[in-house]
Amino acid sequence: MITTSIRRALVPGVAAAAVALSLAGCGSDDSADASTSVGGSSSASGLSGTVAAGGSSAQEKAQEAWRAGFGADNPDVTITYDPVGSGTGRDNFYSGAFKFAGSDSAIPAEDMEKATAACGGSDVIEVPVFISPIDIVFNVEGVDSLDLDATTVANIFNGTIKKWNDPAIAELNADATLPDLAISPVHRSDSSGTTDNFTDWLFQAGGGAWKTEHSSDWPVQSGEAAEGTSGVVGAIQDGNGTIGYADDSAVASTELGKVSVKVGDQFVAPSADGAAAGLAASKLADGAADTQLAYAINRTSTDPSVYPVFLVSYFIACPTYDDKATADVVKGFGQFVVSELGQKAAATNALSAPLPTDVASKADAILAKIAAK
């Protein structure tokens, strides 16, 4: 079904197309009819069939917008997207259960052999489609905003800092009235790209307070675990003295406080522009195949235009598929996602930053090569 947020939030043209659709699924496994019209024309594309996909829960609102806008031209195609988390999404892609996956972190090196096998021995396609800040959010009565550095956040989440009036927090928030209240950190229980990016920031910028490198699975024994982005946000809302992390789109409609993080000598609030600046300050990962645009994120910039706690979310697919119908749907949908129209739809519905033009162009060229075996 189309959610109310899609009807209300999509950009003009995409919204009209979305309302007209007859969708094939409901619940977390939403589905939308899909087409290959990246320019938003109303002509039928002639595609047909059903394609199952899933993964990143941070992509969920963007996927709603993409599938709704993409479906305007072809009522005979159904794409389902199950927001089961990045790790499970990748695993389901490797097994063949998903024809493409969304992942908030690049395919781990130890998984690349499985990804290649899933694509019949060919290099897997992996292109960025979604840039979003990760909000560090909290629920502390009487406190609306906080300034924190990465070291302090790391010590909160590793359990070293246990009270909200701890001197390390108080020193950074002289004007706040901090209660003598236990801190309850909340993290993802499932394998999550959001966790991977959050722990990457803690490790890179935490001054040694965070001992483990980035990981999609929560690496320390501390705090409360909750499943999925919605689970984390719900646990923070329902708790007292809670703090956690979630994609910006999942937090926008809440009244939770947001942390501004220290960058250089300033404290920077989460924003799509700040996340985009963070990508611009990063480089492509070494050793990537020609079919991959995977980034090694720089979390230690001192430029206050950068918000360093962000994710780059990927579209993972194969360069060839067993049948032409599937190949054409995956190719067309991917190209719509990275198109100007697709990126505007995601920015409106999911508060993401549009891909830089050169990145979108490179991604489109890679996706255009998808074909039947």
From TrEMBL:
Ranges of residues in domain PBP: 44-340
Any single GO CC term annotated in Swiss-Prot or TrEMBL for this entry: ATP-binding cassette (ABC) transporter complex
Residues the record lists as binding phosphate: 56-58, 86, 104, 192-194
Residue ranges, annotated region (Disordered): 32-54
One MF annotation (Gene Ontology) recorded for this entry: phosphate ion binding
Record InterPro entries: ABC_phos-bd_PstS, PBP_domain, Phosphate-bind_PstS, TAT_signal
PROSITE patterns according to UniProt: PROKAR_LIPOPROTEIN, TAT
Gene3D superfamilies in the cross-refs: Periplasmic binding protein-like II
Pfam family, one: PBP_like_2
SUPFAM superfamilies to which the protein is assigned, alphabetical: Periplasmic binding protein-like II
GO biological process, one term: phosphate ion transmembrane transport
Signal peptide feature range: 1-24
Family: Belongs to the PstS family.
PANTHER family in the cross-refs: PHOSPHATE-BINDING PROTEIN PSTS (PTHR42996)
Full protein name: Phosphate-binding protein
Lineage: Bacteria, Bacillati, Actinomycetota, Actinomycetes, Propionibacteriales
